[in-house]
């Protein structure tokens, strides 16, 4: 009799613990159900807002995905990229070299935040809105969907210097880019999969024009560029031309999330130096991954979804860390 009751009580305790874990996730643990009782419609609000933004701006899906990426690589996914100068914020990540006049979509995030605050005031972090907006952007562009883990809190600080040093640059070697991914706990598969986000969106001439005329001081264009593609890019981005002119990152389906980015690399039509190096660097471990994703879109989609989850797990603030900003542009009370 005692043994039976003992088993029963252990079972009951285990059940209670399991429920408590769901309701009060432990610090450092993100959860798919984090807002289930406090803001159950947040995913729908974000998705509808992104869909609305897409009706007037075909680039916004790629821009919002990039915004999440540029947030996570600097001190983790903490919404620090959204902070303007003001109060204790003396330098904004928005003004860092990789972000200034390049990263966009802040207004859309502010609009989403406003809508979320109307429905669930003081509950959902800006960092989580970024993560949800990235997933909606990809899935609404015919790409994969994934379960976004939530529970991040917002930073009280920004790190402009960190943004200048931690974010991958389109001018760096594959070795340097790999090192920057490794520094935040992401491996080579994550690097190739997340680079596949360049299957939609645009890039300014200034970020690849060094490939077109005098690459690395050789006096010649980058030899890994398809010659026909090179001619097109030279026309779009003439020497001493407008460095802000936009070019499709994926010349075949620029607004659709698919695996054409990788098939483009196979025929040497990667726009950025860091794109083409994934396939054209002799002996690189990335080559076989590029081949796999080029030949198997399902494999790419599955890897991309997992890598976005991995990226979203970079050093989130949880528990009592940070805060839930009421305005994504500024720390509460500033």
TrEMBL record:
Ca(2+) 1 binds at residues 71, 74, 76, 78, 80, 93. The keyword Secreted applies. Ca(2+) 2 binds at residues 199, 250, 253, 258. It holds the Pfam family peroxidase. Disulfide bonds join 39-120, 72-77, 126-328, 205-237. Residues 29-332 form the Plant heme peroxidase family profile domain. Its EC number is 1.11.1.7. Substrate binds at residue 168. PROSITE patterns: PEROXIDASE_1, PEROXIDASE_4. It catalyses: 2 a phenolic donor + H2O2 = 2 a phenolic radical donor + 2 H2O. It is found in: Secreted. GO terms for biological process: hydrogen peroxide catabolic process; response to oxidative stress. Residues 1-28 form the signal peptide. InterPro entries: Haem_peroxidase, Haem_peroxidase_sf, Peroxidase_pln, Peroxidases_heam-ligand_BS, Secretory_peroxidase. The keyword Coiled coil does not apply. The record marks 66 as: Transition state stabilizer. Heme b binds at residue 198. Its cofactor is Ca(2+); heme b. GO terms for cellular component: extracellular region. Binds 2 calcium ions per subunit. Binds 1 heme b (iron(II)-protoporphyrin IX) group per subunit. Belongs to the peroxidase family. Classical plant (class III) peroxidase subfamily. Removal of H(2)O(2), oxidation of toxic reductants, biosynthesis and degradation of lignin, suberization, auxin catabolism, response to environmental stresses such as wounding, pathogen attack and oxidative stress. These functions might be dependent on each isozyme/isoform in each plant tissue. This is Peroxidase. It comes from Phaseolus angularis (Azuki bean).
